[in-house]
């Protein structure tokens, strides 16, 4: 794992708003404080909290934050996978400095003039400030162990990684480019929000758009690996994320259609232990493999090797 | 328990199904009934002629009143109409406008989900494959159908029927009427997300005309799961949304009580969707809504279906899938500045890697030849 000795060496977009506290030296998703008006996903593991020390959501151990960060946001004691920012994941997965971002200038519009407690454009601007990202998805091309591919990723920290027009458009263009260039495709999903409410029906239709692009990609002989991370829910799970030729998931990731809270309210029985977690999906036949974050890059390389001449 | 009123019989909506804004209509209907009763009593007597005139006037006013009220429904009122207990459903339309319906059951994997009805049918002379959500007309059927919330086996059954239709070039009619795909333990165990995704992907490639109509509730992924078509219409008082107004209100304001505000914010009515270019046509309902006149609604729906099949027939068969692809491909609202003619010069990685072909991403919205 040559490039992974220092997972943060390649962070290219510093997070201007994160304001890392004393002791936290590197900007990353885990250090972003959650906005107060954000609705937390039920059962979602907390972001790595501020400070030098932190408590693990998995084993409750008190951990030295830097050690967790060095470990790609995985608990060194119990392997609990904390969320990880898109750019950090790019550094984890792709060959160093090979990611060429496409369509970076796509920005969300406000077709519904959506205003809940604040106008949607303000919310977007705040998220952009906070995360250093233009939108929840990054797409482009890169290399994994020398194999060229089209790569897309959603950051679960940007409006819960939800899919609006920009995420749908970026992914669709990336899929179309992968089709045209006859390249393999990897999309790493992390979305607690599913289809983004703030763009209403436009978000719903991105499910159709991305899935149709994948249908063409499949027909043209493509190879799509979908990587599911915590959490992958709703409209993202019910479209491109579930359409991989091979589907991988990180351990214990929450993956499903309806949120556990909604299901709980509907069926009014206690949800089984481990419900909608990666292990549950593996047991029921909906994913191929559960892969520890440290092994993801090598697993992707192995898989890509089978379909790359 | 609701009475087993069959909407097909054109009975007036029973009292317990009155929506608040319908009150003036019920009042005028009561007045009309009273006048008609008096007319029946006064048959042949002196005042009968005057009563007849009065009845005519009230009847005319009643139509005007229904039109006026239903032309100005708020989004939340539209949602209420779309969920009306007596609003015609897939099986009603099957009886009213389709002939020789031959139902097909089962997904060949898990079971048969009554929340989605599939089968061969005739629409006039045209043989078609029918696919539609069914909510249930009485309590027993509603319970069996989970109120129109389909399980994965329902979507799998739909896809099986649609693939069969495509092989035999039968046009597919999809009637959408669901609060959403069922949120339950077994639904998740059997891959609700995966099967909806599968349907979206497969429907985009079915080599046969597909017409989709939202006849009541167009609830999110559960609606879209049978919603990929060459022509998409909505009945006038239906809605189509990424999330239910209650769900949206709960997320935004922590209480489902603000559902009226959420319904407004989500822009989920047929008028909104037509304006956004998401749907092709609004199918006008009879005065007072489809629940007052299921036959009238059926006639309007049949008109749309026939018209749509004729329109799709104009598309050359080899362009049908490209046409369907572009129909959904172009949907999206975003800014792009500067337009993506080139990769931005400061884009990370552009200089660092010279060992592969330079890639120019396509211009905004341009389809990839693939």
From TrEMBL, chain B:
Q: What HAMAP family does the record point to?
A: AcetylCoA_CT_alpha (MF_00823)
Q: What GO cellular component entries does it have? A: acetyl-CoA carboxylase complex
Give the molecular function GO annotations.
acetyl-CoA carboxylase activity; ATP binding; carboxyl- or carbamoyltransferase activity
Signal peptide boundaries: none
PROSITE patterns, alphabetized: COA_CT_CTER
E.C. number, please?
2.1.3.15
Q: Could you provide one GO biological process annotation from this protein's UniProt record?
A: fatty acid biosynthetic process
Q: Which family does it belong to?
A: Belongs to the AccA family.
Give the record's pathway.
Answer: Lipid metabolism; malonyl-CoA biosynthesis; malonyl-CoA from acetyl-CoA: step 1/1
Matching SUPFAM superfamilies: ClpP/crotonase
Q: What is this protein called?
A: Acetyl-coenzyme A carboxylase carboxyl transferase subunit alpha
Give me the ranges of the annotated region Disordered. 336-370
Q: What does this protein do?
A: Component of the acetyl coenzyme A carboxylase (ACC) complex. First, biotin carboxylase catalyzes the carboxylation of biotin on its carrier protein (BCCP) and then the CO(2) group is transferred by the carboxyltransferase to acetyl-CoA to form malonyl-CoA.
- List where in the cell it is found: Cytoplasm
Q: Name the major location.
A: cytoplasm
List, alphabetically, the InterPro entries matched.
Acetyl_CoA_COase_a_su, ClpP/crotonase-like_dom_sf, COA_CT_C
Quote the Pfam families the UniProt record gives.
Answer: ACCA (PF03255)
Domain of life, per UniProt, equals Bacteria
Q: How is the quaternary structure described?
A: Acetyl-CoA carboxylase is a heterohexamer composed of biotin carboxyl carrier protein (AccB), biotin carboxylase (AccC) and two subunits each of ACCase subunit alpha (AccA) and ACCase subunit beta (AccD).
* Occurrences of domain CoA carboxyltransferase C-terminal (ranges): 57-311
């Amino acid at each position: 794992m040559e490039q992974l000795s220092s997972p943060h060496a390649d962070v290219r977009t510093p997070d201007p708003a994160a304001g890392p506290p004393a002791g936290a030296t590197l900007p990353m998703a885990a250090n972003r404080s959650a906005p107060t008006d954000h609705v937390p996903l039920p059962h979602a593991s907390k972001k790595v909290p501020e400070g030098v020390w932190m408590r693990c959501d998995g084993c409750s151990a008190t951990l030295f934050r830097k050690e967790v960060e060095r470990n790609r946001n995985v608990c060194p004691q119990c392997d609990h996978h904390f969320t990880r920012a898109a750019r950090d994941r790019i550094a984890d997965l792709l060959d160093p400095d090979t990611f060429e971002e496409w369509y970076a200038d796509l920005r969300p519009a406000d077709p519904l003039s959506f205003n809940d407690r604040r106008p949607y454009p303000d919310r977007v601007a705040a998220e952009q400030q906070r995360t250093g990202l233009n939108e929840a998805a990054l797409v482009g091309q890169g290399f994994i162990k020398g194999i060229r591919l089209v790569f897309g990723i959603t950051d679960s920290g940007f409006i819960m990684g939800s899919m609006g027009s920009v995420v749908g458009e970026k992914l669709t263009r990336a899929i179309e480019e992968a089709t045209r260039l006859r390249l393999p495709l990897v999309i790493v999903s992390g979305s607690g929000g599913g289809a983004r409410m703030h763009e209403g029906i436009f978000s719903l239709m991105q499910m159709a758009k991305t899935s149709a692009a994948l249908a063409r990609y499949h027909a043209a002989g493509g190879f799509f690996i979908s990587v599911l991370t915590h959490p992958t829910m709703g409209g993202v799970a019910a479209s491109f994320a579930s359409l991989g030729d091979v589907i991988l998931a990180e351990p214990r990731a929450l993956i499903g259609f309806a949120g556990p809270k909604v299901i709980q309210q509907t069926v009014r029985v206690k949800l089984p232990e481990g419900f909608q977690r990666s292990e549950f999906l593996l047991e029921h036949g909906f994913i191929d493999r559960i892969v520890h974050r440290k092994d993801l890059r090598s697993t992707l390389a192995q898989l890509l090797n089978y379909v790359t001449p | 328990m609701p009475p087993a009123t069959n909407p097909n019989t054109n009975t007036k909506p029973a009292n317990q199904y009155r929506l608040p804004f319908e009150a003036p209509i019920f009042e005028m209907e009561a007045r009309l009934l009273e006048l008609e009763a008096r007319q029946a009593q006064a048959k042949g007597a002196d005042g009968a002629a005057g009563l007849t005139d009065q009845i005519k006037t009230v009847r005319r006013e009643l139509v005007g009143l229904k039109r006026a009220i239903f032309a100005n429904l708020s989004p939340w009122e539209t949602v209420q109409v779309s969920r009306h207990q007596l609003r015609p459903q897939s099986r009603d339309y099957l009886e009213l406008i389709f002939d020789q319906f031959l139902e097909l059951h089962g997904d060949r994997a898990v079971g048969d989900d009554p929340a989605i009805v599939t089968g061969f049918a005739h629409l006039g002379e045209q043989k078609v494959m029918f696919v539609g959500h069914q909510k249930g007309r009485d309590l027993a059927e509603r319970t069996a159908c989970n109120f129109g919330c389909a399980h994965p086996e329902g979507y799998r059954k739909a896809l099986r029927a649609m693939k069969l239709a495509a092989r035999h070039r039968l046009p597919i009619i999809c009637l959408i009427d669901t609060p959403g795909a069922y949120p339950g333990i077994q639904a998740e165990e059997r891959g609700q997300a995966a099967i909806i995704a599968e349907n979206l992907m497969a429907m985009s490639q079915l080599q046969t005309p597909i017409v989709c109509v939202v006849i009541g509730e167009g609830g999110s992924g559960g609606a879209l799961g049978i919603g990929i078509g060459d022509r998409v219409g909505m009945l006038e008082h239906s809605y189509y949304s990424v999330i239910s107004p209650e769900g949206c209100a709960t997320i935004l304001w922590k209480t489902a009580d603000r559902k009226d505000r959420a319904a407004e914010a989500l822009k989920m009515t047929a008028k909104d969707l037509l304006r956004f270019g998401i749907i092709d046509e609004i199918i006008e309902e009879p005065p007072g809504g489809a629940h007052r006149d299921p036959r009238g609604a059926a006639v309007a729906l049949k008109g749309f279906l026939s018209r749509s099949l004729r329109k799709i027939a104009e598309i050359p068969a080899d362009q049908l899938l490209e046409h369907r692809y572009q129909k959904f491909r172009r949907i999206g609202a975003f800014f792009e500045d500067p337009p993506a003619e080139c990769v931005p010069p400061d884009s990370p990685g552009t200089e660092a890697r010279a060992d592969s072909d330079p890639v120019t991403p396509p211009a905004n919205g341009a389809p990839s030849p693939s």
